[in-house]
Design goal:
Elements (H helix, E strand, L loop, with lengths): L1 H7 L4 H15 L8 H16 L3 H14 L5 H17 L3 H17 L3 H17 L3 H18 L2 H17 L3 H8 L1
Length: 182
Amino acid sequence: MLYQAVELQFSDPAGTLRLLGEIVERAADARDQATPMAATGALAGAMRAHLNRDHEAAATEAQRALDLLPPDDMRGRGTALQTLGRAAEAAGDIAEARRIYERGLAEARASDRERAIGTFLLLVGSAQLASGELEAAAASSLEARTVHARRGDRLAEELALYQHGAVLAQAGATVEAIAVLR
């Protein structure tokens, strides 16, 4: 049910918030216990807070989810790390966001989760771009493109190309950026 909310967030934001709220309510009794339901509730709370732009609450709940999730729940850990990193970015702490995204990338690589590797490469690249580390951002976006192309995920591949075009544009390579973005 939690990952159904993740898939819904773009097509039905109100429905997503409702579904996340239901999950949080169901998990309320297990809030402070080290149980799968408590971890799911914390993760749903983090996602709901993020969608409501309450970044402090999102960070708190995402960290709680990380503390409660078992080490082998890579999908849950990845979602929590993404939410925690986005909260750091929203607070203006790009260095912390990058550290969190790099942690997520390391965990994704260790578990050989291609989709997560590609996602975290894009997030690391975004933080690198925001920090002005253009060569590193270019390398991350191109690696993300390769990963997503290998998976056959055309949309994610296009996102990586878009990010690479943004890196080129910020570097002043306007002609190259336009060629990539076509």
